[in-house]
């Protein structure tokens, strides 16, 4: 096992990793930017090192400074959290070259699953359901047109190296195809340095369902069942829950098993998530694999009892997974609401500044993952998520009631947050009955859904 790990992240996930490391008896080193000098999570770390100015490009994304901090603090491993360098294969390679363990997959597994074209090919082999579409990057206009007709419009042009929704174009008619391919190729080349694009079937009204997986360096891979993350705004998840409601057990087990098979075939170690869109008839199509711990991982921890962050540290140290597939079962239901410092009434304008009042909810089955305390100053430079409120109940009904109660207890001010929006969604017929698709929150906000 390691003796000291460096956390190349900030906020709630830095705190989450500190807690896991401490339980494992490990010391922690946090790197921070000048904007995070007073970050409350730093008080919980054993050591902290400033690595530069507020802009992520000058601090949290500076591989050289993070490695220097790890070397001077004698950390033997680095946990990247999510965002920043978490899915950067170059960073994972530099760590390896410097003999510092990257807590996550090997650069090879990350690259293989991070490239959407090679990931689709691997998924096909593993029996993981994918959208009908290209097997390789588009080279010839005629071939792309032929394929689009074969799978039927609408189709979506996507970048192999895509992320953050960039390099994607929805195409409804044959005339739009060629210009969409060209502009997607250009956007992908400038955003990712890789202009490869492919096409797949576009699904209009689907739910987002994902499968949490874990792998180790001994060829073991398991799944921890699924989560539903359909409540989104501009592709940003707002509410996540698990297990995904209304998925027939047989289909759920088959898809979850195929996701575990995929990451086993990729010789993957650490936490991974296979994301899918699910059609109304419970047909699954893989979107992508996220090669890191996710914001919504607590939902799965609550229903399975598996500590995903601790497991990811253990497997990075070369230990085998502590759980076999047959040990994993689902207990009850869990929901997470992302509390963002944004004003839902003003187009989600970020609310940087001092949090004067901060009172967290509590009680049976209530968990808050947050780095915020009263007096904390939210810097304007980073993501606006300031807390994750997670509840666990016997079933979905109890979890919804518990979430409503916990939201009403939560006091954060004077800045606005997404709490009122969550309260509204939780009472919507569409949410309660799970009659939803990935655009329903946007329709609700536009006053189109009743
Ligand atoms: P990125 O890596 O850029 O986030 P994803 O492949 O995860 O790209 O897709 C981002 C979002 O775009 C998805 O969450 C979904 O809303 C939409 N999307 C992607 N592919 C499809 C598809 N084939 N059909 C319908 N929507 C899609």
Describe this structure in words.
The protein is α+β, with helices and mostly antiparallel strands and about 450 residues long. The chain has three domains: about 5-105, Rossmann fold (3-Layer(aba) Sandwich); about 130-200, ATP-grasp fold, A domain (Dna Ligase, domain 1, 2-Layer Sandwich); about 205-445, D-amino Acid Aminotransferase, Chain A, domain 1. The chain is about 35% helix and about 25% strand. The protein contains 14 helices and 22 strands. Strands 13-12-9-10-11-14-21-19 form an eight-stranded antiparallel sheet, with helices on both faces. A five-stranded parallel sheet has the order 3-2-1-4-5, with helices on both faces. A three-stranded antiparallel sheet has the order 7-6-8, covered by helices on one side. Strand 1 (about 5), helix 1 (about 10-25) and strand 2 form a beta-alpha-beta unit. Helix 3 (about 90-95) packs antiparallel against helix 4, helix 5 packs across helix 8 (about 250-265) and helix 11 (about 395-410) packs antiparallel against helix 12 (about 420-425). The radius of gyration is 21 Å and the shape is globular. The mean pLDDT is about 95.
């Amino acid at each position: 096992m390691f003796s000291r790990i460096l956390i190349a992240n900030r906020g709630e996930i830095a705190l989450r990793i500190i807690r896991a490391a401490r339980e494992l008896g490990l010391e922690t080193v946090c790197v921070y930017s000048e904007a995070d000098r007073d970050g409350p999570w730093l008080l919980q770390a054993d050591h902290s090192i400033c690595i530069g100015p507020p802009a992520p490009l000058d601090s949290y994304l500076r591989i050289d400074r993070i490695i220097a901090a790890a070397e001077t603090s004698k950390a033997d491993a680095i946990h990247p959290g999510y965002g920043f360098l978490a899915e950067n294969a170059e960073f994972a390679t530099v760590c390896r070259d410097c003999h510092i363990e990257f807590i996550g997959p090997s650069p090879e597994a990350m690259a293989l699953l991070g490239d959407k074209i090679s990931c689709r090919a691997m998924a096909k082999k593993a029996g993981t359901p994918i959208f009908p579409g290209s097997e390789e990057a588009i080279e010839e206009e005629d071939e792309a047109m032929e394929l689009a007709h074969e799978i039927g419009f609408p189709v979506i042009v996507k970048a192999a190296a895509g992320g953050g929704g960039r390099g994607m174009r929805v195409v409804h008619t044959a005339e739009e195809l060629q210009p969409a391919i060209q502009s997607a190729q250009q956007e992908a080349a400038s955003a990712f340095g890789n202009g490869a694009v492919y096409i797949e079937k576009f699904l209009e009204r689907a739910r987002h369902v994902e499968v949490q997986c874990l792998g180790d360096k001994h060829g073991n891979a398991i799944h921890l069942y699924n989560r539903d993350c359909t409540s989104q705004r501009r592709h940003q998840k707002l509410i996540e829950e698990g297990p995904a409601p209304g998925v027939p057990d047989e289909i759920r087990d088959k898809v979850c098993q195929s996701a575990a098979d995929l990451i086993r075939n990729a010789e993957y170690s650490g936490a991974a998530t296979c994301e899918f869109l699910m059609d109304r008839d419970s047909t699954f199509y893989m979107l992508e694999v996220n090669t890191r711990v996710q914001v919504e991982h607590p939902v799965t921890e609550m229903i399975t009892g598996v500590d995903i962050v601790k497991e990811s540290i253990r497997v990075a140290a070369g230990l085998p997974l502590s759980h076999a597939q047959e040990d994993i079962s689902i207990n009850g239901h869990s929901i997470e609401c992302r509390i963002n410092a944004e004003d839902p009434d003003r187009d989600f304008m970020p609310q940087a500044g001092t949090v004067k009042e901060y009172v967290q909810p509590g009680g049976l089955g209530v968990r808050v993952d947050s780095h915020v305390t009263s007096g904390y100053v939210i810097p304007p430079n980073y993501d606006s998520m300031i807390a994750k409120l997670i509840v666990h109940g016997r079933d979905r009904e109890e979890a919804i009631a518990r979430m409503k109660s916990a939201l009403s207890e939560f006091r954060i001010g004077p800045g606005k947050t997404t709490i009122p929006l969550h309260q509204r969604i939780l009472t919507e017929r569409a949410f309660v009955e799970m009659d939803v698709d990935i655009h329903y929150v946007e329709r609700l906000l536009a006053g189109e859904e009743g």
